[in-house]
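quick one before i forget lol
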Amino acid sequence: MLKVEFDGTFAGWRQEARRLLQAGIAPAQVSWQESHGLGDLFDEPVEAVATPPSGAVRIPPQLAEALSYAACFRSDDRWALLYQVLWRVARGDRAAMLAGDEDGSELQRRVKAIRREIHHVHAFLRFRPRAENAGPPAWVAWHQPAHDVLALAAPHFCDRMGNSSWLIATPETAALWDGQVLQLLQPCPAELQQLARQTPEDDDRNAGDELWRAYYRSTFNPARANPRTLRGNMPARFWKDLPEGPLIPALLSEARAGAQRLAQAEAVGRQSGREVLIAAERAQPERPLPTTLDECRRCELWEKATQPVAGEGPRTARILLLGEQPGDQEDLAGRPFVGPAGQVLMAALAEAGLDRDEVFLTNAVKHFKWIPQGLRRKHVTPGPEIAPCRYWLEQELRDIQPIVVVALGSTALEALLRRKPRGLAQFMGRPLRLDERWIIATYHPSYILRTPDATQQEQARLALVTALREARTLAAEG
C-alpha cells in the first residue's frame, strides 16, 4: 500500500492524482493522508512516485467540476472515491460518472449535498456589524457548515457586500475580504473564531438583530406553519446561529397550541355567510386527559418548547435511565440524550458494559424549560412542572416494567420519590427498593460537564459509571 501525503486541498490532491495516474498506480494500491504539518517522527518514509514522461491526463470538464465539489464532502474516503472515479474515467470507463453506477451514484450524491450546503451558507449566514472604531473587518459572521464549502460559497459575498470588509469564520476555515482580495485561512485561527462569535454589546448593533427578529415574528404565519417543511428548508442545526433562531421553537409551539387554528378561524370568519349560534358548552367541551405528549397541556412548558421529547428504547428494557429534562439539542431533535450530556452518558454506558439500545432513556419532564440569553436558550431547572409530568413517567414505568431505574440527578430522584430529596449524596451508593423496583441515584452527566475542577469531574464520572455497573448487576439478578 502506497501512502500518499498531500496538503488536504483539492489542488494538492489533483497534483498527486495526476502523478499516480501517469505511473499506472491503481486505487486499491493507494492510501491518502492529509498532512497539515510535520509528520510523525516514527512514520515510515514514503518513496516519491516517479512521474513518467507521458502525456497529460484528459477528463471531461463536467467531471473536473464534480470532483472539485465532491472534494468538499466530509468523509474518511473522500479522496479515495475521487481517485477511484478518476482512475476509471481516465481509462475510458465513463460509466463511473453516471448515477446508475455505484461510484457515480455516490459521487453525484456528494455533489448534490455540497451544492445544497453552499445554498445553506448563502441563505443562513448572518453578518453582524462591528463597532466603527474597531477597524476591519467591518462585518463578521459565524457559520457551522456540514461540509468544507466556505471556499466555494465565499465569492458570493464578495459581490454582495461590495467594498465592505468582512470575516466569515467556521470551526475549520476562515474567509477574509478586504474589499479587493479574498483570503482563505485553514485552519481557522482561534482569535478569528472568537471574533466572529461575539454577540453585539452596544445598542446600535443589537438594534439590527432586534429589528430582524421583529420582522421575522411579524411575517411568521401560524396558519401556514408546517414544522416538517420548515426544518427541511431551514435545518434546525442553523437555528442557534441565527438572530431569529431563538424565536422559532416558541413560534412553532404557539402554532401547535392554537395560534394556527385561530388564524385559520379568523380567515374563515371574514368570509360572508349565515351566522350560526351555538351554546358555549358545546363550543368548548371539557377536554379529557391527554392521550399523547403532543396534546399535553398539564404545565406551561409546551408553550415555548419546540416539541415534547418522549422516552426512547426497547419496551423490554430491564434498565430505565431517568434524566431531568430535554436540553437544547434534544428539544430540536425530538430525542433524549443526543446533546453533549448524552455523549458523556453514552461513554459511561460503554464503560459500564451497557449499550444505548438495551436501556430505556427518558426524562422526568418532557419539555425543555429555558429562558432566552442573547441568541441562546439557557436551561432552567424544572420545579413545579415535575409533579404534573409524573403522569407520563408513571405511564412509561407501567409500560416498560424496568427492574432498575437509574435516577440521573436530583430532579429525576424527586420525580421517583414524589418528594424533594434533601440531597443527592445520601442516596448515592445505596440502592433503594421502591414500588417493586430498584432505584439507583447518581450524578446527571450535565453535572460532569459543568464541574470546573478536573479531579471532581473525574470523581463524578466514575460515580456515574459505578452506578451504571451496579444497575447492570441488579438487572441481571432480576
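fyi The longest strand covers residues 437-442.
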